[in-house]
Amino acid sequence: MISIFFKLLETKLSYIRLQFISRYLKVSNLQYRIMKESSEKQIDNKAFSEECNVVLMAVSDALYAIGGKWKLMIIISMARGNKRFTEIQRQVNGISARVLSSELKELEINGFIVKKVAVGYPVSIEYELLPYSQTLQEVVEAMTKWGMQHRQKIKTERSSVNSKKRE
């Protein structure tokens, strides 16, 4: 009984709202319905924004783990057989020893690599990829493909700009 009362009240309020809007704001019934539908879509957009937040958080987590200029390059270098600190530093052009040390520590914390210290003289330190690092293979392949495509696009655009300047 009470729910029927509230439905009637809601219907009456909607009618009054429609009359008010149409009289005082000079809005037609069609325009009012469009406004009402857009406000209902805004409610649907909240679900979309929640989905967007989930995606943004996932990407943020991924960038935290493998983001930056060097981490993926270090992993790629290690996957190609470089295990010692100096080998990795030689392979990854431009990285300083301090930055490499820091990046290796972060990769170890995130479970991508393990540091193995061999006791003896001299002390031998090697880094090994853990199986979890294999989960990045698709990411690396996609980034490689996109990087090559992007480099080609930039070369094409630059050559077309240069040819236009010569004319």
What does this structure look like?
This protein is mainly alpha-helical and 167 residues long. Helix content is 72%, strand content 7%. It folds into two domains: 2-64, no CATH class; 71-156, Arc Repressor Mutant, subunit A (Orthogonal Bundle). It contains six helices and two strands, in the order αααααββα. A two-stranded antiparallel sheet has the order 1-2. The mean pLDDT is 79. This is Winged helix-turn-helix transcriptional regulator. Pfam families: HxlR. It comes from Flavobacterium procerum.
Count helical runs: 6
Characterize the largest beta sheet: strand count, sense, and whether it forms a barrel: 2 strands, antiparallel
* Total domains: 2
Question: What is the name of the CATH topology of the largest domain?
Answer: Arc Repressor Mutant, subunit A
CATH top level assignment of the largest domain: Mainly Alpha
- On the 0-100 scale, what is the average pLDDT? 79
Query: Into which percent range does the helicity of residues fall?
Result: over 70%
Residues in β-strands, percent: 5-15%
The total strand number stands at 2
The value of Rg in angstroms is 30 Å
Low-confidence stretches: none
What class, by secondary structure content? mainly alpha
Terminal residue distance = 83 Å
Q: Strands of the largest sheet, in order across it?
A: 1-2
What is the assigned CATH homologous superfamily of the largest domain?
A: Winged helix-like DNA-binding domain superfamily/Winged helix DNA-binding domain
Global geometry: flat
Order of helices and strands: HHHHHEEH
Architecture of the largest domain, according to CATH? Orthogonal Bundle
Domain HTH hxlR-type: 52-155
Keywords: DNA-binding, Transcription, Transcription regulation
Protein name: Winged helix-turn-helix transcriptional regulator
InterPro entries: HTH_HxlR, WH-like_DNA-bd_sf, WH_DNA-bd_sf
